[in-house]
UniProtKB/TrEMBL annotation, chain A:
Keyword field: Signal
InterPro entries: Amidohydro_3, Metal-dep_hydrolase_composite, Metal_Hydrolase, Metallo-dep_Hydrolases_sf
GO function terms (MF aspect): hydrolase activity, acting on carbon-nitrogen (but not peptide) bonds, in cyclic amides
Organism: Paraflavisolibacter caeni
The protein, known as: Amidohydrolase family protein
Keyword presence, Signal: yes
GO cellular component: cytosol
Residue ranges of every copy of the Amidohydrolase domain listed in the record: 67-91
Pfam families documented for this protein: Amidohydro_3
Cleavable signal peptide: 1-20
From TrEMBL, chain B:
Species of provenance: Paraflavisolibacter caeni
InterPro entries: Metal_Hydrolase
SUPFAM superfamilies assigned: Metallo-dependent hydrolases
Name of this chain's protein: Uncharacterized protein
Length: 167, 103
């Protein structure tokens, strides 16, 4: 019993030590670009917790983290923003454009859009026009940003004057 | 869009759907363009323009208040009327750059 209590106490201590200062993601050996100053800093460690960059430090110690990425000196920048995209260009590459997105394929459409931009470092894109019939799912993606998907902003459909009308 | 009030209603409808950005396309004629811009602007929406095809020109859209322009290459149409100025432009090009010209 004594041994059991001791073991329990020991494990609890380990767990609490493990919790303290544990990060969700650590990116080490990163070349960091500061978009405010334009400066590059080498061998930086980026500490991320709860979706927020809590610190960028030149301290090289081994931080405990759920996941650690060794950038091996590669450039790490804030996500790029593409200010003008059209989802038609993305979906057309896969064949004829659908009139509506089918309800059971929404995740699939969202993934295709994300897969087109995320590999280039674009994490946010502005949709500058699409069919009005595509708006409801796109607005739902906008309202519910997810780490694995592209962040989206959008305009509505194209407004067109009726050329045949009397002025 | 059959009227400026239809354009206004559409912008309000988009705003209620949660849209905060709007692009005004060259296929809008001036009365609708103006109504859509004013409505969107009064709702604090960000407005972008695609001004093209000699339907709307940048001097009028600047007057209306539009400040963000997409497809900047198409703004050439605002200063160069292809129908009239195009011929003069090619004559000028011929005069200075045609084979055999020296100056």
């Amino acid at each position: 019993m004594k041994l059991f209590t001791f073991t329990l106490a020991f494990l609890a201590t380990i767990t609490s030590f493990g919790q303290a200062g544990k990060f969700d993601l650590v990116i080490k050996n990163a070349k960091v670009f500061d978009s405010r100053t334009g400066a590059l800093s080498l061998n930086q460690t980026i500490l991320i917790k709860g979706g927020i960059i809590t610190k960028v430090t030149s301290n090289q110690k081994n931080y405990s983290a759920t996941k650690t990425i060794d950038a091996r000196g590669k450039l790490v920048t804030p996500g790029f923003i593409d200010t003008h995209i059209h989802p038609t260009d993305v979906y057309r590459a896969y064949g004829a454009l659908p009139e509506y997105f089918q309800k059971d394929s929404l995740e699939f459409y969202r993934k295709r859009l994300s897969d087109t931009y995320l590999p280039y470092g674009v994490t946010t894109a502005m949709i500058m026009g699409q069919s009005e019939k595509w708006l409801p799912p796109i607005l739902s993606w906008h309202a519910d940003p997810q780490p694995g998907y592209l962040d989206i902003y959008t305009v509505g459909g194209a407004l067109i004057s009726n050329e045949g009308r009397k002025p | 869009m059959d009227s400026p009030s239809a354009a206004k209603q559409k912008v309000i409808e988009y705003y209620k759907l949660g849209l905060r950005h709007i692009k005004l396309y060259w296929k809008l004629r001036r009365p609708e363009f103006e109504a859509a811009f004013e409505t969107a602007d009064s709702l604090g929406m960000k407005v972008y323009g695609h001004v093209d095809q000699n339907i709307m020109f940048i001097d009028s859209t600047l007057d209306i208040g539009l400040r963000n322009y997409e497809h900047i290459l198409t703004l050439v149409n605002s200063v160069l009327d292809v129908q009239n100025d195009g011929k003069d432009f090619s004559l000028e090009m011929q005069k200075y750059y045609a084979p055999g010209t020296h100056f």
